[in-house]
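Before we proceed, please read the two lines closing this message. Report back on whether the structure tokens fit the sequence:
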Amino acid sequence: MAGVVGGMVASWAMDRFQYWWLSFGGGDERKLQQTPNEEMDQEEPATVRTASAFSEGVFGHRLTVKEKEIAGPIVHYAVGTTAGAVYGLAAEYEPDVTTLSGIPFGAAFWLVVDEGSLAFAWAC
């Protein structure tokens, strides 16, 4: 359970940090809040592209702009929460997973899941 909570908190922290970083780096706050539209498909975040690919592949439904606004964060939090749950479960049964505070686990998770989903989203 601690892994699930940790994953949710980490997802929230990542979300806030990325928003702050983009704002600090000269990003226009209004651009950060713009919703995606059909012409901007290539500029959509990977979470939105993944949600769109899942919706079309599983349900045969193309997401509307409003649905994309909801689905992107759902994918983000689902991945983060799942990562925390898997880490917590793995640490319970195999304490070596926590070596170096879980950095190897996090790096492997990022490489397989995050980069893998990016490749999947861009391929779709």
In short: Residues 2-123 form one domain.
